[in-house]
Every structure is written in C-alpha cells, then in structure tokens.
Amino acid sequence: DASVARPRIPAARLYRDGVLSSVLNPKIALFELALLPQFVDPSHGSVLAQTLVLGITQFVIVFPFDAGSVLAAAGLRRLFERHGRWSHWSRRALAGVFAALALRLAIDVRK
C-alpha cells in the first residue's frame, strides 16, 4: 500500500550494495574477457597497457550515461511519490497487461 511508510535506506548502503553486485557479477567479467581482447594487438606494445586504456575509455563513456539514468530514475520516483494515485493506476495497468498476455496465450493456436 502506498500509504505505508517504508524505512529509509542510507544512500551509502545503496551505493555499496550496487558496487558489490556489479563487481561480483560474473557476467561483467565474461563480457570484458570476450570484448577487450578483440582490440588488443601485442605488436603495438604492452597488452596490459592497451587493456587498461580500453577499460578506462569504456568507463569514461559509460559512467555519465549510468549516472544520468540513476538521476532520471530518482526524479521519476519523486514525481510518482508526489502523485499517490500513480501507484493505484500503475498496478491496474500492469494487471491489464498480464491479463492481455494470458488471453493471448490462451487463444494462441500452435501449428
């Protein structure tokens, strides 16, 4: 229920949990191991230096986008919290989407 007060979680804890979940996510390591070696050429110098430059470049490009996404989501959350009826109508809309999907599955004919 939207009227129930939720406990506030400190921002530092949220940040720590987010960093830990990213660092400990094996999919990120696998992605980097699959992506970066394609752009590293041992004939152009240190493989470690090239990999670090690529990693730092990726971070510099991705960080502003991720930070902007977080700030936008926080702004939307404040907007939705100010308009209490949003919670009620969003749940109804989601229920409608699920009902439509269930109906589609029920009438879908397999060939």
Largest sheet: none
What low-confidence regions span 5 or more consecutive residues with pLDDT below 50?
none
In percent terms, what proportion of residues is strand? under 5%
Q: How many whole angstroms does the radius of gyration measure?
A: 22 Å
- Strand element count: 0
- Helix content class: over 70%
Shape: flat
| Overall pLDDT confidence | 87
By secondary-structure content and strand pairing, the structural class works out as: mainly alpha
The number of distinct helices, counting runs of at least 4 residues, comes to 4
Order of helices and strands: HHHH
Q: How many angstroms does the end-to-end distance come to?
A: 44 Å
Précis, in short:
The protein is mainly α and 111 residues long. 74% of the residues lie in helices and 0% in strands.
Please provide a written account of the structure.
The chain has 111 residues and is an all-alpha fold. The protein has helices at residues 11-23, 26-35, 47-82, 85-107. 0% of the residues are buried.
SSE map:
Elements lengths: L10 H13 L2 H10 L11 H36 L2 H23 L4
Provide key terms for this protein.
4 helices, 111 residues, single chain, mainly alpha
